[in-house]
Design goal:
- By secondary structure, the protein is α/β, with parallel strands linked by helices.
- It is built from 10 helices and 11 strands.
- The strands form 2 sheets. It has a 6-stranded parallel beta sheet, with helices on both faces.
- β1, α1 (16-25) and β2 (30-36) form a beta-alpha-beta unit.
- α4 (78-87) runs parallel beside α5 and α8 (179-185) runs antiparallel to α9 (191-199).
- The longest helix has 14 residues, at 250-263.
- The radius of gyration is 18 Å and the shape is globular.
- The two termini are 20 Å apart.
- Bound molecules: 1,4-dihydronicotinamide adenine dinucleotide and oxaloacetate ion (OAA).
- 1,4-dihydronicotinamide adenine dinucleotide (NAI) binds at residues 10-16, 36-39, 59, 72-75, 77, 95-97, 122-124, 188, 191-192, 195, 243-244, 247, 251.
- Belongs to the L-aspartate dehydrogenase family.
Length: 270
Amino acid sequence: MSAELTVGIAGLGAIGLHLARALDKGVQGLRLVAVSAKDQTKAAANVAGFASKPAIVPLAQLAEMADIVVEAAPAAVFEEVASSAIERGRVFVPSSCGALLPRMHLVERAKQTGARIIVPTGALLGLDAVRAAAEGNVSSVTIETRKPPGGLVGAPYLDQQKIDVLAITTPTMIFKGNAFDAAQGFPANVNVAAALALAGIGPERTMVEIWADPAMTRNQHTIRVESAEVRLTMTIENVPSVENPRTGKITPLSILACLRGMTSTLKVGS
Ligand SMILES: NC(=O)C1=CN([C@@H]2O[C@H](COP(=O)(O)OP(=O)(O)OC[C@H]3O[C@@H](n4cnc5c(N)ncnc54)[C@H](O)[C@@H]3O)[C@@H](O)[C@H]2O)C=CC1
Ligand SMILES: O=C([O-])CC(=O)C(=O)O
């Protein structure tokens, strides 16, 4: 491994811009070299004060410049970012990991090109423990997500079911099903369910409940795992980002910790 790994970031929103700023402040062994954005002028203004300005390039060019490509863009452009990184044998770090579930051929392709796909814990917690449990005999994995209604706005499932989420006045379960269907119906809201499914027993067997709760001020996720060896119950309460209330502020921090773990001498947690 070279002494320094270069990083490219697709998307400069709630996740990407925070991560870019943190990398620019200096992280041992990592150097931000390129970013992609929908609005180039805004992106140029965003990186204008950086100590080391990254190049602003089209999505597919990130993989030409960076060892690690972090995807932090809408799920609609996931495939373009993922494919270019995987074809070049890069380390691909997806935020929109719900978009990976129907594209597991990318994992097969990565085996051929030598790329790695590293799904960060993101807005969730405890995926180290879930992965450990999954080495044994797991009988069930569930996640219950509760968000303020504003954190669910725009989900295709709500349109299909004609649910006006902003009209909800009491805690209401708006979805119950498996992680695969949850990711399809809520592509910008429950990437956490996809990450949990990938860490544990897969998207068909991982069960998801999504609640719209007007009393909530945080995005809350509770994981429950039952296995022959262990019982896990874990809750995270995420402060929503100002830029995007669907996204918890912990997410760019989690990705930063994930990247740091790729170069650090001491790495804690498996
Ligand atoms: N894995 C996890 O735990 C979490 C995943 N997410 C997901 O991560 C992704 C990013 O989330 P946020 O940063 O909150 O979204 P955001 O909406 O704040 O930022 C996305 C950025 O991508 C930009 N963008 C749009 N089209 C683009 C294009 N063609 N090329 C380059 N940039 C483009 C937008 O202008 C925006 O600045 C979303 O898919 C979100 O659902 C969000 C929270 C947690
Ligand atoms: O999973 C997601 O896409 C986002 C989320 O719930 C959070 O940030 O709490």
